[in-house]
């Protein structure tokens, strides 16, 4: 198992770029949801959220296909196959006039993008391990966060001067440029001697191996809880700021400022994780995540929305905790899975994402005239995450409680 503690800027930047194709496909579309819904004849604004949450469903299932294949045939060719699926799905999205077909296209987009998203994590695990892997993942996420900072503004710009279809075309152009960069400059990270022979039992064997590791299962569950509650924000943010607060013009800037909060946390995590350890930081961040949301629920139980400044303060604190969680939870889950990094990342991503989608769809249905249901969701899944840490500690004594 390779244990590399050498920082490689181009590798980190390229991994962040691969992951950012997903963020751009999600976040750039947020300002356009009402226009897309109008074009497709959507009458219930809640249905527009499906264009965000359903891409995550594709991301979850696609990893189960591409992860095991990458363990057998290498990372690079599988990334290209996934991007080909993304191209086909994007064409479906810009040519349909039906919400149902658009949702199918978004699921297929997610399936295609699951390849660069999950395999970037597999490639990081191929190169690094331990707390230094968590450091690299934090830096990758920090670069990756730049996309949510600019994506809604880019989407709004394209919407103002062109149309919502142009957002899909820009996503395609961006993806092609990243694929060319990846093709020219990134060597294969899984040498042939470490590739697993492809057999019909590869997936089943991988699942059995994954579930042998209690830490991997536990931190995958926590990832699902945190991702699901955060996905509610992603799918309802346009509705909250544009409809509940009447801040349509400010939406891209508000979204960007909150993304900066996550980026700052991931930057600080990259500086502190080797010193303090990913386990300790993840546990403390989970406590903060639960505490902040419970405080909001207690203060605003009436359901009446606070001023925008108070709301943004709570969001910023909540997402600051999220920034410490995302990279560390993935690293903790992947740490014991270096020998099956491809299928390990796939199962981790599949379980956490498939957990997250119904969570987001269910809670998102209550976010109509108040932000309170969103913070109730944060509270519930923050507490559940904390319980997983406590139970894991009783069984393994790995968590510093």
UniProtKB/TrEMBL annotation:
Membrane-spanning segments: 49-66, 78-97, 136-155, 167-185, 216-235, 250-269, 281-302, 308-329, 341-363, 369-392
InterPro entries, per the entry: Efflux_drug-R_Bcr/CmlA (IPR004812), MFS (IPR011701), MFS_dom (IPR020846), MFS_trans_sf (IPR036259)
Domain Major facilitator superfamily (MFS) profile residues, every copy: 9-397
Bilayer topology: Multi-pass membrane protein
UniProt-listed CDD domains: MFS_MdfA_MDR_like (cd17320)
Compartments, record wording: Cell membrane
UniProt keyword terms in alphabetical order: Cell membrane, Membrane, Transmembrane, Transmembrane helix, Transport
Family, as annotated: Belongs to the major facilitator superfamily. Bcr/CmlA family.
Protein name: Multidrug effflux MFS transporter
């Amino acid at each position: 198992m390779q244990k590399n503690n050498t920082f490689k800027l181009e590798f980190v930047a390229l991994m962040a770029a691969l992951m950012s194709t997903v963020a751009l496909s999600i976040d750039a579309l947020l300002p356009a949801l009402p226009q897309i819904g109008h074009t497709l004849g959507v009458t219930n604004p809640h249905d527009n959220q499906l264009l965000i949450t359903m891409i995550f469903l594709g991301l979850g299932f696609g990893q189960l296909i591409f992860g095991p294949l990458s363990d057998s045939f290498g990372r690079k060719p599988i990334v290209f196959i996934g991007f080909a699926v993304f191209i086909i799905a994007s064409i479906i999205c810009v040519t349909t006039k039906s919400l149902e077909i658009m949702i199918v296209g978004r699921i297929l987009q997610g399936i295609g993008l699951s390849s660069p998203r999950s395999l970037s994590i597999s490639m990081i695990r191929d190169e690094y391990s331990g707390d230094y892997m968590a450091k690299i993942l934090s830096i990758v996420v920090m670069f990756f966060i730049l996309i949510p900072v600019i994506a809604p503004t880019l989407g709004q710009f394209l919407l103002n001067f062109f149309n919502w279809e142009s957002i899909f075309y820009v996503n395609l152009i961006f993806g092609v440029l990243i694929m060319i960069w990846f093709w020219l400059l990134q060597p294969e990270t899984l040498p042939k001697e470490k590739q697993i022979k492809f057999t019909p039992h590869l997936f089943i064997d991988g699942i059995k191996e994954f579930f042998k590791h209690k830490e991997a299962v536990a931190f995958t569950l926590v990832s699902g809880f945190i991702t699901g509650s955060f996905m509610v924000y992603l799918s309802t943010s346009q509705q909250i700021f544009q409809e509940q607060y009447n801040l349509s013009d400010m939406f891209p800037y508000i979204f960007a400022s909150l993304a900066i909060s996550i980026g700052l946390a991931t930057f600080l995590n990259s500086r502190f994780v080797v010193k303090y350890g990913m386990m300790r930081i993840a546990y403390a961040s989970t406590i903060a995540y639960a505490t902040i949301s419970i405080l909001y629920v207690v203060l605003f139980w009436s359901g009446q929305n606070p001023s925008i400044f108070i709301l943004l303060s709570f969001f910023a604190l909540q997402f600051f905790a999220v920034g410490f969680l995302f990279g560390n939870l993935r690293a903790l889950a992947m740490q014991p899975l270096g020998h099956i990094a491809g299928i390990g990342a796939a199962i981790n991503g599949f379980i956490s994402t498939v957990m997250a989608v119904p969570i987001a769809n269910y809670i998102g249905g209550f976010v109509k005239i108040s932000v309170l249901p969103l913070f109730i969701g944060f509270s519930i899944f923050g507490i559940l995450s904390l319980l997983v840490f406590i139970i894991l500690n009783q069984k393994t004594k790995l968590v510093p409680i």
